[in-house]
Amino acid sequence: MNNALEPGARARATFRGRFGADPQWMARAPGRVNLIGEHTDYNAGFVLPIAIDRDCIAAAGPAPGPLSIFISADTGDTWEVDLGRWAEPEDFDAAFAPGRIHRGSWASYIYGVLRLLHARLATDSLMRPVNLVIASSVPLGGGLSSSASLEVAACLVGEQMLGMNLPGPARAALCREAEHRYAGVPCGIMDQLISVLGRENHALLIDCRDESARAIPMPPASEAVVVVMNSGVRHALAGGEYAARKAACERAAAGLGIATLREATRELLERRVHSIGEEEFRCARHIITENTRTLAAAEALARGNLAAMGRLMNESHASLRHDYRVSCPELDCLVETAQQQPGVFGARMTGAGFGGCAIALVRPEDAHAAVAATAAAYAARHGRELSAFPTSAQPGAARL
Ligand code: GLA
Fold first, then answer.
1. N or C: which end of the chain has fewer CB within 10 A?
2. Separation in Å, CA 275 to CA 252, 253, 256
3. How many Å lie between the centroid of ligand 1 and the Cα of residue 34?
4. Which domains are delineated in the chain?
C-alpha cells in the first residue's frame, strides 16, 4: 500500500491498478472533532462539532459483474459482495463471499448504506454490481468519526450510482440507520450530521432535538488553533459502555417523568433525586450541565471569548470523567497535562471516550511547546508515543 499519497490519490491509484480504469464516481467526507457537547446527541441535546481536514474518500465504478468488489486502499482488505441478494443485518453470510462479513467491519457500513439507498428507490430491479475503493486519512477507531466519514462517502457515491441526491439531513439519517442496523452501533446523529453539513471556519451548534444547526465562527488561526492529541488507545469496553450510558440516560428520563434528558433541569433532578438510582443521577447531571455548557460555549466562541470557551472545555472533561465516567487514565493524562501548559485555553476528551482523542484550544505560538510537554508526560506515565496534529474547521462532504 502506498500510504504516503493523500487519500484521494490513493483511492484513485488503487482503483486504476485493480480495475484498469478510472473511477466513475468519487466523493469525500470528513471526520470531526467535537469541541463540546459530549454524549448529549442521543439525549436530544446540543453539540458543537467541526468537520476536520481528514477525509474518507470513496471511488466507484460499475463492475462487469456479477459480484461487487469493495477494497480498502489503506489495508488491502478486499470483499466480494453479491448486491443482488440483499441480506438483513443478522444474515450477512449469505451475501458475502469469500469469508464472512461481520457486523462492524468497514464493509458492513458500506453494505448497509447501499442497501438502505437502494430500498429508497422502491424498485424491483436489482442493484447493479459496483467496484468500490475507500481510502482514509481519518485515524481508524480514534474517536474522530472514521465510521461516519466512511458511511457518508459511501452514501455520496451510492447516490451518484443510483441517480439520487438526498437532502443533507436525510443523508445523515440514512447513514446513522446503516450504522445502527448493519454495524450494530447505537450512535447518535452528531457525527453524520457534521460530516455532511460541516462549514469552513465555523463550528456548528446543532440542536439534536430538531437537528437545526447554527454556524458559529471559529477564532482566526492567528488567535487559537485546535490541536488533536491521539492517545493511541481504544479500550475494549468502549462499545458496551456506550450502550450502557445510553440505557442509563433512558432510565433516568423515565424516572424523572420526561421523554428525554433534554427536558431535565437541575431543579427537577433535585426534586426527584429519590426516584432514580445513583448511576442515573450522575448521567442526568452530566447531560444537564453539558447542555448548559455547550450553549455557553457557542456564545463564548461567537464573542471571541476564548478564556471562557477554554474553561467550559475543562469543565466538560471533568464532568465526563467524574459524572459520566467515559474517560480513562490515558485521556486524563493528556488533558490534565495540556491544561497546565502556557497558552492553552482549555482541553478535553472528544468523542465517545474510553480512549481515542483529546483536543486542546491553544494560542498558535504556544502549540508546539504544549504538545511537546504533553507528549513527554504521556511517554513518562503511560510509555506511549503521542501523535498530535493541528486541525481547523472544514466544509462538509462533497462529490469529487
Ligand atoms: C460517538 C457517537 C456520537 C456521540 C459521541 C459522544 O461519536 O457516534 O453520536 O454520541 O460518541 O458525544
1. N
2. 9, 10, 7
3. 9
4. 7-215 (3.30.230.10)
